[in-house]
Design the sequence.
């Protein structure tokens, strides 16, 4: 339909509710976010980070479209922040509050419409060293549940097993009926394969619950998961692994393994157009529609496109 040139690689994209605007955020550690017209792709505004901070790849709007929250990093201290922007007033920065950890990445609004859940990946970076990971030995990933209106952290959860402290929590999705699913990227060297997809429920007092999958498929993940998405009904969870070349599926909320769809360099996952399945994208130019990984309903190859990290339903 149209192309929108970016200053550098983009990462996460989202749609502003009640408007014809979309937003794409720079790949971490990034220095731009672009607001664009959904109909013709024209850039409407560039958002630059507040001095001393950079963007970490994702943003989310309030239900009324008036507020934008962005995952950010204070690069001198390494502290994670959530930047707050007034989307109804030219995207002016109006506040910021701690994310509760280092390296906040994706964030989502919980089903109560009041609480943000933030994936603190635990990895520190600095603009002077690009994407170099500066603290792998001491990283401590976590989920933070934060009151969106005030920035108050109401709950924070880390891995109960200290041996898992190098599983960087990166991407997540809030289940429509409550709870969160999230996926990790393993920063351990030569460690045995372990589950990378977990669920958690705020206020439960429970540890992260790994989702079961066959050992051979855990190995196929190659320690790396990317997109995390539910179907519209919230019954099926999809998680992509571009390094493993698969998209994995579970029946929710019981977490029953459904199977996988093989897609080389497949990373983007979004609701399919009719809401009954998923659309998938790959770095080799494929766009695929599928239902729970059982079969491809439709696919097309775009020879001159290499689809990047994420895919967003409009």
Sequence:
């Amino acid at each position: 339909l149209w192309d929108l040139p970016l200053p550098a690689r983009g990462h996460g994209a989202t749609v502003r509710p009640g408007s014809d605007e979309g937003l794409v955020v720079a790949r971490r550690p990034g220095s731009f976010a672009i607001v664009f017209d959904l109909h013709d792709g024209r850039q409407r505004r560039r958002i630059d980070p507040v001095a001393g901070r950079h963007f970490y790849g994702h943003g989310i709007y309030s239900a009324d479209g008036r507020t934008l929250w962005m995952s950010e990093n204070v690069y001198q201290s390494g502290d994670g922040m959530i930047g707050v922007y007034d989307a109804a007033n030219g995207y002016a920065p109006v506040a910021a509050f701690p994310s509760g950890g280092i390296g906040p990445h994706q964030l989502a609004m919980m089903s109560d419409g009041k609480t943000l859940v933030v994936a603190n990946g635990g990895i520190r970076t600095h603009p002077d060293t690009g994407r170099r990971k500066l603290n792998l030995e001491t990283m401590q990933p976590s989920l933070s549940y934060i009151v969106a209106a005030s920035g108050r952290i109401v709950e924070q959860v880390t891995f109960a097993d200290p041996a898992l402290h190098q599983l960087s929590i990166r991407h997540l999705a809030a289940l429509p009926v409550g709870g969160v699913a999230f996926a990790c990227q393993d920063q351990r060297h030569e460690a045995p394969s372990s589950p990378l997809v977990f669920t958690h429920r705020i206020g439960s007092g429970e540890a992260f619950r790994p989702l079961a999958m066959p050992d051979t498929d855990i190995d196929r993940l190659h320690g790396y998961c990317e997109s995390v998405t539910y179907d519209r009904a919230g019954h099926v969870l999809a998680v992509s692994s571009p390094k493993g070349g698969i998209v994995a599926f579970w029946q929710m909320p019981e977490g029953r393994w459904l199977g996988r769809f093989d897609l080389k360099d497949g990373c983007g996952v979004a609701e399919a157009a009719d809401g009954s399945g998923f659309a998938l994208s790959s770095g080799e130019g494929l766009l695929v529609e599928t239902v729970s990984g059982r079969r491809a309903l439709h696919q097309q190859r775009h020879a001159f496109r290499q689809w990047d990290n994420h895919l967003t339903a409009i």
Q: What stands out?
A: The CA atoms of residues 185 and 297 lie 29 Å apart. The mean pLDDT is 89.
